[in-house]
Amino acid sequence: MALNLIMMGPPGAGKGTQAELLAKRQGIPKVSTGDILREAVKMGTPLGLQAKAIMDRGELVGDDVMVGIVRERLDRADARFGFVLDGFPRTVAQAAALDAIMTGRDPLIVIDIAVPEAELVRRLASRRVCGSCGENAEGEAAALPTCQRCGGPLKQRADDDEAVVLERLKVYHRKTEPLIDYYRARPTFRSVDGAQPLEAVAEALTAAVEGIASGNRTEGALR
Question: Domain locations in the chain?
C-alpha cells in the first residue's frame, strides 16, 4: 500500500519540518508546492513556462496551473509508493482537484498539526533566518547570533513580526481552515498536538500514520 499523506497546519506549526522527517523515515518524497513550482519553472515544462509568465507579471499562480504541476509531480516514479504533500491543497477547490488526481490510487492520509494561536505567535516572533543562506533558526538556535549552517548573521523575517503573524493567521483561518472541515469526517484524518516538543510531535505523527495505514491494510484484506 502506498503511503499518500497531506501535512496540514497553520504557519508556525512545524509542518514543513515534520513533513521532511516523516518523508525520510518512510522513504518517500516530500512534495513542497514551492519546490515543485520552482523546479517546473527551471525545467521549462509547458506548465512551468506558464507559471513563470504569471509570476513575472507579479500575479499569483492560479489553481489550474498549480493543480497541473502537482499532478505531474505525483505521476513520477518516485511517488509511486507514496509522498508527503506540504503546502497543497490550500483551498477546498484544490482539495477536490487532488481527490480527482487520486482516483484509482490508495487513499489520502490527512494529518493536521494543531497548535494554540498564542504559541504560534510566540514561535514565529522568536524565529530567525540566516541573511546569507536563508536557513530558518528556531528554538535554541534562534538565540544564537550566527547561523549554525554557514555562520551568516541571523535576523527576524519580515513576515514574522507579531502584527504580520496575526494577519497571516487570520488569512489561514479564513481560507485554509475550511479544509479541516472538508477532511475531518474521513477515517484517514487525524489531528496531532503540535504544541509538544519536536520529537514528541514526530512520534505522535508516526503513530497516527501507522495506525491509519494498518487499518487500511486490514480493511483491504477483508474485502
Answer: 3-28+81-115+164-222
Q: What angle do CA 150, 147, 115 make, to 5 degrees?
A: 130
To the query of whether residue 105 is one of the catalytic residues in this protein, the response is: no
For residue 15, indicate whether it is catalytic.
Answer: yes
Q: Which of 123, 127, 128, 190 is catalytic?
A: 127
Contacts of 210 (CB under 8 A, 6+ apart): none
Nearest C-alpha neighbor of 192 from the set 180, 183, 201, 184: 201
Degrees, nearest 5: CA angle 112-193-188: 40
Whether residue 168 lies in the annotated active site: yes
62 to 39, 68, 94: CA distances (angstroms): 17, 10, 10
Determine which one of 15, 123, 128, 190 is catalytic. Answer: 15
Question: What is the rounded (10 degree) CA torsion for 60, 63, 68, 216?
Answer: 130
Does the annotation mark 127 as catalytic?
A: yes
pLDDT in tens, 34-57: 888 888 888 888 888 888 888 888
Catalytic residue among 38, 52, 71, 90: 90
Q: pLDDT for 95-124, tens place per residue?
A: 999 999 999 999 999 999 999 999 998 888
137 neighbors 148 (Cβ within 8 angstroms): yes
- In this structure, which topology does domain 3-28+81-115+164-222 adopt according to CATH? Rossmann fold (3.40.50)
Q: Is 192 left (phi over 0), alpha (psi -120 to 50) or beta?
A: beta
